[in-house]
């Protein structure tokens, strides 16, 4: 009887059983039982006979009533969820099911995970700010205690030494920044060209796009630290990808090439020099040609859509290649590397001309073969 009552409306009651739903279950159940579900409960409890068959008009009326009831029930659930307090496991994050009627169960779970991710991110940022503030207070307190324990002459010396150290640090940072800019400007003319293809936004979720944005940020940082950097290209990005990139501090000042066109259009006169790096290629690259342009697929795909980059390269009739990953990674580990790992791998190889050293530097140790 209870199974018949509570599992007859999957859009409402078979949604993910998160802990904060317990706070509103009694409200929703009372609503369901008090309306159409009450009649079903009475019929099921009073006898084992099946429900009476309804005529066409009654059936249409009943279907319309069910839709209205679902809307009202989901509105009550959303309202209760948004006003409910955080549960002991921190799962109440102001999540709303968007009335549940136009979203599948998988979409509802994805939306919940996204809201949960945003809440966790806000908590991490807040905790980091609090940690830095506490560390600053501790250092200031230690400095004040140090000054309080000496005489005036010694105090003046300490303050002057600290000021000189700060000036020296700032000068070193400015000098390092100037050298980095000089290296990147030089790489614009003479460096190895590495292209990140950003035309896969439609295949990624918002979370995947944010992850790709972070990987691109790591790529630029690694390239800037390199003694002989490459010249990075971002091609084929759409409005959504561009909006995420613009959130990176200082992105507008990056010394890279940004082109919203496809790499085919951007390098139309160098089509024969294009090589798409894809794990599905049969051509293993044991060396890097400085005259070629190596393309990396900007795709963070947690659903593992196979062959996407290979199919694209074949359709465009450009060369493909893959790095000697199988020779240096464990068979049991994932053979797919992140964009920033591939870029660091290429940078290290161009510096050392040794794949083993490059893999040790760029790839986590848990993935490496023990040789």
UniProtKB/TrEMBL annotation:
CC terms in the record's Gene Ontology section: nucleus
Uppermost EC category: transferase
GO MF term list: tRNA (guanosine(9)-N1)-methyltransferase activity; tRNA binding
InterPro entries with a match to the protein in the record: MT_TRM10-typ, MT_TRM10-typ_sf, tRNA_m1G_MeTrfase_euk
Keyword S-adenosyl-L-methionine listed: yes
Residue ranges annotated for the SAM-dependent MTase TRM10-type domain, each copy included: 180-370
Protein known as: tRNA (guanine(9)-N(1))-methyltransferase
Native source organism of the sequence: Kalanchoe fedtschenkoi (Lavender scallops)
């Amino acid at each position: 009887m209870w199974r018949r009552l509570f599992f007859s409306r999957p859009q409402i009651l078979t949604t993910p059983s998160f802990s904060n739903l317990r706070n509103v279950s009694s409200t929703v159940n009372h609503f369901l039982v008090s309306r159409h579900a009450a009649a079903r409960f009475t019929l099921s409890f009073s006898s084992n006979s099946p429900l009476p068959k309804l005529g066409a008009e009654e059936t249409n009326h009943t279907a319309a009533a069910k839709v209205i009831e679902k809307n009202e029930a989901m509105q009550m659930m959303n309202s209760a969820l948004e006003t409910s307090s955080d549960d002991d496991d921190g799962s109440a994050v102001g999540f709303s099911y968007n009335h549940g009627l136009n979203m599948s169960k998988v979409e509802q779970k994805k939306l919940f995970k996204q809201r949960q991710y945003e809440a966790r991110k806000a908590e991490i940022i807040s905790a980091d700010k609090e940690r830095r503030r506490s560390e600053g207070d501790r250092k200031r307190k230690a400095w004040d205690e140090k000054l309080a324990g000496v005489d005036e002459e010694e105090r003046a010396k300490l303050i002057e030494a600290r000021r000189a150290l700060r000036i020296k640090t700032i000068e070193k940072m400015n000098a390092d920044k100037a050298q980095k800019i000089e290296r990147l400007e030089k790489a614009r003319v003479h460096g190895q060209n590495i292209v990140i293809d950003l035309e896969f936004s439609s295949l990624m979720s918002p979370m995947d796009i944010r992850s790709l944005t972070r990987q691109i940020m790591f790529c630029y940082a690694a390239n800037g630290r390199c003694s002989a950097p490459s010249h990075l290209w971002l091609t084929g990005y759409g409005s959504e990808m561009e909006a995420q990139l613009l959130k990176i501090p200082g992105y507008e000042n990056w010394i890279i090439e940004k082109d919203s066109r496809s790499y085919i259009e951007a390098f139309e006169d160098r089509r024969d020099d294009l090589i798409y790096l894809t794990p599905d290629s049969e051509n293993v690259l044991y060396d890097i040609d400085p005259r070629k342009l190596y393309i990396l697929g900007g795709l963070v795909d947690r659903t593992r859509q196979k062959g996407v980059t290979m199919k694209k390269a074949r359709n465009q009739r450009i060369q493909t290649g893959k790095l000697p990953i199988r020779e240096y990674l464990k068979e049991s580990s994932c053979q797919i590397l992140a964009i920033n790992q591939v870029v660091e791998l290429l940078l290290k190889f161009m510096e050392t001309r040794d794949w083993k050293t490059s893999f040790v530097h760029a790839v986590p140790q848990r993935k490496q073969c023990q040789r």
